[in-house]
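Lecture 7 notes: from sequence to structure.

We start with a single chain of 379 residues. Read the sequence below before looking at the structure.
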Amino acid sequence: MQLLFRMRFIKWTQMKMVAISFAIIFQVISHSLYGQTGGQSSFLFLNLSPSARNTALGSYAISWPGSDPTSAYLNPSLLNDKMNTAISFNHQFYFDGIDAGHVSYSQLIKKWNINAQAGIQYISSDKIVAADEIGNIYGTTDANELDFFVVGSKKFNDRITLGASIHYINSHLGLFSSNALATSISGLYFNPEKNYGLSLVLRNLGVVLDAYDIEKEKLPFTVELGFSKRLLHLPFIYYITAHHLETGNVRYDDPNLNSNSDIFGNVKEKSAFTKWTNNVLRHFSLGGEMLLGKKEQFNLRLGYNHLRKKDLSVADYTTFGGLSYGIGFKIYKFKIDYSEVLSHCNDTLSSIGRCIMFTSMGNKLTDSNCKNSPYSFFE
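Now the structure, written as tokens:
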């Protein structure tokens, strides 16, 4: 009788936790704190997707504790034992010759039972036109931004993991430079029996040390809440993430997109309800991952980011903007990921990533170790 009561109490507590988390989402969304997401801060490269896998899943896959080391950059509490000795390289072929990337190494510290990671996230370009305020061109200049980060996570019981990261950020834009310190904190709740994860992340809390000019700009602080679940009878994981929860209104009111006309030329403005619904949907991204093969070595991925679609919409054009897709496969200790994002009506953004699992110092991660982990599948 006591055992039955305890099981029901635990189940009720878990359901209450999920309900409170999603209540926070709609409470924050319904109250506008700022408008839009751009132009409010510097160092926006901190919010770029760090890996091809995450990009393919809609850029906000923050709630499933798999074996992708780059996921710890977005959510420190996702860092786990399966990432031990992993070196990850990711490169993104951005627009107009801009390059972005991510490099990291993960290590389990057995003495304190803490998973640690160190790495660099970067973005750079040497083809920026140098011009004055009236448009006189003087040549080209370069720009680069670097984030040196350290991540740590600790598992407190079978279901709860907490994590944090520290970042030193350096930015060089032509003749101007800036430095900043930031931190991110997160928590992960994972239910191994029902195969679902729930995670809350607060990213980019910090201060600017040296400003570009007199005024010190803000860091791109953001709050995200994610849910993911693996289906019982199908090797498929889906992701639902609410992002930019610190900002109620993320709409950009483009007058060319806020109205439409009928065949007689009569202009009809979008209703307040339509605008509200559109704003709520912009806070969500979706992703799905199919795990194929005997040991699930081959993965197919698909994602949708509604905010990206709307931000890059063009009047009088219908595009597949906001969609992303990719593949991943594992051969021995090597994992290769590739993704593409349909960003605009005539352009795509591609990313490639590689992860290597090293066995050293008497520490060996085998397939059986990973299969017996509480995360229920081996990537």
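The first strand starts at residue 86 and ends at 93. Keep this in mind for problem set 3.
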